[in-house]
Specification:
Shape: globular
Organism: Dethiobacter alkaliphilus AHT 1
Helix content: 25-40%
Largest sheet: 7 strands, mixed
Distance between the termini: 16 Å
Protein name: Probable glycine dehydrogenase (decarboxylating) subunit 2
Number of domains: 3
Number of helices: 17
InterPro entries: GcvPB, GDC-P_C, GDC-P_N, GDC_P, PyrdxlP-dep_Trfase, PyrdxlP-dep_Trfase_major, PyrdxlP-dep_Trfase_small
Number of strands: 12
EC number: 1.4.4.2
Bound molecules: pyridoxal-5'-phosphate
CATH topology of the largest domain: Aspartate Aminotransferase, domain 2
Low-confidence stretches: none
Family: Belongs to the GcvP family. C-terminal subunit subfamily.
Strand content: 5-15%
Oligomer: single chain
CATH architecture of the largest domain: 3-Layer(aba) Sandwich
Length: 484
């Protein structure tokens, strides 16, 4: 077992060396009133700088990231993520501005927000964007609040939001949080929205349909124009979950498909690394008729000057402090400018090509329930392997032994023992072939001895964890007394 810093510390060791003091040494009593001073000595480990650095460096290698290996975590994976973005976002002019500075001193930052909005309007086919939401789910909530405000402004109280059964879990969760009743729409045998069932669910109580296109099976909803027409006919709006825009960007636009609101995950598609909860950015774009309801402020341009517009009387208000996670927008802008129009198209094309390549190879070993050309991802079923004794979860654990991050498992729910694979645009053929060989090897191992796969992983820092116990009885706090 690796020792904690508390166990490694020895009294008197120091992690720093300071130069001789060349100003008067003022006592604590001079600086802090007695009643504000700590009485008991501070119980902290004492270590040398080298010991601390080694400790944390070693810990950092225990995690799997896109910088350490293949990471095909369907839907939620990180797409192309160039390091130059970090450099730009770290420039003092961007990193050190304060949101309360006078507008005349942050013209560059405002210009960047304005220009990123312009680029993303082009990519999505929307009329206005706000960067305030800081996650995809946060964008969904903001979008539904805007939709609600729009209907209310027309004197309508609509109560339902339609969500396909293949939707990302955040969609029904968000609709519920926004106060709507969720109506689930089934998929047909091709894995697409059952248009007949959708039409039967449509009435004047429907506020919106939330849709991902391509859906989470990686399949493009070919009836999208008919779907959007039908929803609009009853006065409902269309919400596009654009978390994974690398499936279509440069080729198709939500705005042209009839969508009224779209959220993007800048921390998936537009080059900000994600994980551990942040920082993210889930901007939403809306059509003209919804712009009066967007959060304040919007960034506007007057002649050569950029300014913040708070004059939106029908705005839903603010959904986050200031302008959202500005640093993430800097990275997205850098990415957009580095890639250019052709580069974005190339990213989508590569993402789709990689997914289809891998799908064609893996469907020989794993059951592919919806066998059609996919977009950025595809969903296999481990049902045959499960019959032999080891299912999707076991395969995911076994992949860890080979140094791969597993695909998303058990989602979408409409596929039994789902393995949702998204290779992304960044991987080369050798990586894809290596992963496919490993998946084949695991399937072969299940044929021979499923118990071996059921007890994986065998080579990681910790073995198989009890996930239920971890969720039901989380121990989130470590107490110093635990050592004694
Ligand atoms: C990741 C994802 C979301 C949610 O984004 P968060 O930033 O994690 O809140 C929503 N929809 C889809 C399809 C996603 O892949």
């Amino acid at each position: 077992m690796k020792k904690l810093l508390f166990e490694m510390g020895r009294p008197g060791r120091k992690g720093y060396s300071l130069p001789q003091l060349d100003v008067p040494d003022r006592s604590v009593d001079e600086l802090l009133p007695a009643k504000m001073q700590r009485k008991a000595p501070l119980d902290m480990p004492e270590l040398s700088e080298g010991e601390v650095i080694r400790h944390y460096t070693e810990l950092s290698t225990r995690n799997h990231g896109v910088d350490s290996g293949f990471y095909p975590l369907g839907s939620c994976t990180m797409k192309y993520n160039p390091k130059v973005n970090e450099e730009v976002a770290g420039m003092p002019g961007f990193a050190l501005v304060h949101p309360l500075q006078d507008q005349s001193t942050i013209q560059g930052a405002l210009e960047l927000l304005y220009k990123t909005e312009k680029e993303l309007k082009e990519v999505t086919g929307m009329d206005r964007l706000t960067f305030q939401p800081v996650a995809g789910a946060h964008g969904e909530l903001t979008g539904l609040m805007v939709i609600q405000a729009y209907h209310r402004a027309k004197g309508e109280e609509r109560t339902k939001v339609l969500v396909p059964d293949s939707a990302h879990g955040t969609n029904p969760a968000t609709a519920t949080m926004a106060g709507y009743d969720v109506v689930q729409i089934p998929s047909n045998e091709q894995g697409l929205v059952d248009v007949k069932a959708l039409k039967e669910a449509l009435d004047e109580k429907v506020a919106a349909l939330m849709l991902t296109n391509p859906n989470t099976l990686g399949l493009f909803e070919e009836e999208i124009l008919e779907i959007s027409k039908a929803v609009h006919e009853v006065g409902g709006l269309l919400y596009y979950d654009g978390a994974n825009l690398n499936a279509i960007m440069g080729y198709a636009r939500p705005g042209d498909m009839g969508f009224d609101v779209v959220h993007l995950n800048l921390h998936k598609t537009f080059a900000t690394p994600h994980g551990s909860g942040g920082p993210g950015s889930g901007p939403i774009g809306v059509k003209e008729k919804l712009t009066p309801f967007l959060p304040v402020p919007l960034v506007e341009k007057d002649g050569a000057d950029y300014y913040l517009n708070y004059e939106l009387p029908q705005s839903i208000g603010k959904v986050h402090g200031f302008y959202g996670n500005f640093g993430v927008v800097v990275k997205a802008y850098t990415y957009l400018r580095m890639m250019g129009k052709e580069g974005l198209k190339q990213a989508s094309a590569d993402a789709v090509l990689n997914a289809n390549y891998l799908m064609e190879r893996l469907k020989k070993t794993y059951y592919l329930p919806y066998d059609r050309v996919c977009k950025h991802e595809f969903v296999l079923s481990a049902r045959e392997q499960k019959k032999k004794g080891a299912g999707a979860g076991d395969i995911a654990k076994a992949l860890l032994d080979y140094g791969y991050h597993p695909p998303t498992v058990y989602f979408p729910l409409i596929v039994e023992d789902a393995l949702m694979v998204e290779p992304t645009e960044t991987e080369g053929k050798e990586t894809l072939d290596g992963f496919a060989s490993t998946m084949e090897e695991i399937a072969e191992a299940i044929n021979k001895d499923p118990e071996k796969i059921k007890s994986a992983p065998h080579t990681t820092v910790v073995g198989r964890l009890n996930e239920v116990k971890a969720a039901r009885e989380p121990r989130l706090r470590w107490k110093r007394d635990d050592l004694k």
